[in-house]
Write a structure and sequence with these properties.
Layout lengths: L1 E9 L12 E7 L12 E5 L8 E6 L1 H6 L9 E6 L7 H4 L27
Parallel strand pairs: 3-5
Antiparallel strand pairs: 1-2, 1-4, 2-3, 4-5
Length: 120
């Protein structure tokens, strides 16, 4: 799972029949996510009614397909929740890396830019 912010919505009049009712959102992952690809954004299905400006939790792969209705769904990312608040321990932020694959220091995100609980 990753944390990110909804920065837009995708409108597509022609799409796979299994996604006819799906709401598609453009998500910008927060700095602690390092994708294995060059893109900086994700497109995710949304069943929790997130909106532009909301911080969200996104799952990838098989869990995303399961949340969208089954393993045969053409989905690779799905929004699972809207974030009210994030708290990070200062000693964790100072660590050189939080997990395998994260090669840079974690950077604190100012409290005003992370979800405050107010829906926009």
């Amino acid at each position: 799972m990753i944390l990110g912010r909804v920065i837009g919505q995708v409108w597509a009049t022609r799409r796979d029949a299994r996604l006819q009712r799906a709401k598609l959102l453009v998500i910008r992952p927060h700095a602690i996510y390092e994708p294995a690809f060059a893109g900086r954004h994700l497109v995710a299905t949304d069943d929790v009614d997130a909106g532009v400006g909301d911080d969200v939790i996104v799952c990838l792969g098989a869990p995303a397909r399961a949340s969208a209705g089954g393993n045969d769904m053409p989905v690779d990312a799905a929004v699972l929740g809207v974030v009210d608040r994030v708290e990070l321990a200062p000693d964790v932020l100072a660590a050189p890396g939080a997990a395998p694959g994260i090669r840079r220091k974690l950077v604190a995100i100012p409290a005003t830019s992370v979800g405050t609980g107010a829906r926009r």
